[in-house]
């Protein structure tokens, strides 16, 4: 629904930005700023806050640099905060959709329209830009919270806030008056700060109503056979899992990819012998060891989702980010018969194929299943797995003889993680054309040529 609503207003920001781009093509950056100042002042109807904002932005014409522009925008935001004519856009209003369009489409299609911003810039920074430069936008300047700081994963404040969001508000709702489980992380942090400034010494900065999902992608790669060459082809093109925000490969020896910025985490072996009862590889022990290396490395905790992608899987990270964004996640057609446990996170079943249709959720403990070609779990789900790994191993008999996807699917259900069903273009589960835009991943493509053909087709 959010994507549909965004599409309804997409033409307006695109027209607006296109006009600004045309002006920039025939004027210096200083002249563009002066023009925006004039338009903004005229369209403000004498609004004092807008006039002061325009004065601040005009300072950027003295030096034609992104740093000067950013400083001017910050000053403008501070002045509007003093006048109280400020605020972060709320989901559903026109400013919100303008900003989301700029973050997801505008900056990727025309990065020159957004000086000083990148695809990873915050919602707040995009809103500042639109408030200053887009006369068609209804965006205000965001308010400035002096001395604010938003906690990041791994620090003491973040750990306390995460507990409050997942466990505290469920077990002790009276401790969090005025908050709900849907309240932004920043609102929880400011609440914790007011209650105990020792664990959270700062108020949080403005809540960000939309953010680009950050993906940490990894693969187990056998050092002998076709997988190394397949991975090297993807690295060269920055395609598949190597288009994620961060990535790592796991193998039984260093694969020599460090020159391309890809680290190899080493495990004892990637070799597996025999078959499971279902005729698949009993590789759960290999992946359990690989995941222990992810835990030791720790970088996954800097990202929202952790994606295990097999080397022969064609993954489209940009497409995946959009459906994983909380406001864009589709309704789960196969909801589990329990509410997710606090702090258990989300995992993604991706295959609803079954031998006997109609058996329903949880048939054989698995349906619908998370097929191993692409395994998606939220950071919280992986944290929870690591904290309770021994509980899974002791409760799942014979896990060492299972495929890793079966073991992990059973484990996440044992831990009562939330579920988000996203069917993929996997030939082992009904398949799907690489040109079918409903999917975020396609499998299997075991040669570099066929892999790249699928990638090119999917990206059209």
Short description, anyone?
With 460 residues, the chain is of the alpha/beta class. The chain has helices at residues 2-26, 29-43, 48-58, 66-83, 94-109, 123-133, 156-171, 185-195, 227-237, 284-297, 317-324, 379-387, 389-395, 404-414, 448-459; strands at residues 215-220, 246-251, 264-266, 305-309, 314-315, 346-347, 374-378, 418-419, 425-426, 441-443.
Description:
This protein is α/β, with parallel strands linked by helices and 460 residues long. It is 42% helix and 8% strand. β1, α9 (227-237) and β2 form a beta-alpha-beta unit. The radius of gyration is 24 Å and the shape is globular.
The average pLDDT value, as a whole number, equals 84
Radius of gyration over C-alpha positions, nearest whole angstrom: 24 Å
Strand content: 5-15%
Number of strands: 10
Q: Would you identify the regions where 5 or more consecutive residues have pLDDT less than 50? A: 1-12, 18-64
Largest sheet: 5 strands, mixed
* Number of H- or I-type helical stretches: 15
Shape: globular
Termini separation (Å)? 24 Å
Structural class: alpha/beta
Reading side by side through the largest sheet, how are the strands ordered? 3-2-1-4-7
């Amino acid at each position: 629904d959010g994507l549909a609503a965004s599409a309804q207003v997409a033409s307006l920001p695109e027209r607006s930005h296109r006009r600004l781009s045309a002006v920039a093509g025939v004027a210096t950056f200083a002249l563009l700023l002066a023009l925006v100042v004039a338009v903004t002042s005229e369209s403000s109807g004498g609004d004092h806050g807008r006039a002061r904002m325009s004065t601040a932005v005009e300072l950027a014409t003295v030096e034609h640099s992104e740093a000067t522009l950013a400083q001017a925008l910050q000053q403008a935001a501070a002045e509007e905060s003093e006048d109280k004519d400020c605020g972060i856009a709320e989901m559903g209003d026109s400013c919100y959709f303008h900003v989301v369009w700029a973050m997801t489409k505008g900056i990727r299609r025309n990065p020159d329209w957004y000086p000083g911003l990148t695809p990873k810039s915050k919602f707040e920074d995009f809103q500042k830009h639109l408030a200053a430069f887009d006369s068609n936008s209804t965006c205000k300047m965001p308010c400035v919270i002096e001395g604010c700081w938003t906690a990041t994963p791994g620090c003491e404040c973040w750990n306390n806030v995460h507990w409050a969001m997942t466990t505290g508000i469920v077990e002790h709702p009276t401790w969090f008056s005025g908050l709900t489980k849907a309240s932004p992380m920043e609102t929880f942090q400011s609440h914790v700060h007011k209650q105990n400034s020792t664990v959270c010494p700062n108020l949080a900065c403005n809540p960000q109503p939309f953010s680009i999902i950050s993906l940490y992608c990894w693969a187990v790669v056998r050092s002998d056979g076709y997988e190394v060459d397949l991975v090297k082809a993807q690295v060269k093109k920055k395609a598949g899992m190597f288009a994620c925000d961060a990535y790592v490969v796991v193998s039984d020896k260093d694969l020599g990819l460090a020159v391309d910025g890809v680290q190899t985490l080493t495990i004892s072996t990637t070799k597996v012998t025999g078959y499971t009862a279902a005729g698949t590889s009993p590789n759960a022990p290999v992946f359990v060891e690989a995941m222990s290396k992810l835990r030791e490395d720790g970088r996954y905790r800097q990202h929202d989702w952790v994606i295990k992608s097999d080397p022969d899987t064609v993954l489209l990270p940009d497409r995946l980010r959009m459906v994983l964004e909380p406001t864009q996640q589709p309704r789960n057609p196969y909801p589990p018969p329990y509410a997710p446990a606090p702090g258990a996170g989300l995992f993604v079943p991706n295959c609803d194929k079954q031998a006997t249709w109609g058996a329903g959720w949880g048939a054989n403990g698995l349906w619908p299943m998370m097929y191993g070609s692409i395994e998606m779990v939220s950071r919280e789900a992986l944290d929870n797995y690591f904290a309770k790994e021994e509980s899974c191993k002791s409760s799942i008999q014979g896990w060492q003889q299972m495929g890793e996807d079966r073991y992990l699917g059973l484990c996440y259900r044992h831990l009562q993680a939330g579920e988000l069903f996203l069917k993929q273009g996997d030939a082992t589960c009904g398949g799907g054309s690489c040109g079918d835009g409903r999917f975020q991943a396609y499998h299997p493509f075991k040669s570099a040529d066929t892999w790249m053909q699928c990638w090119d087709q999917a990206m059209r």
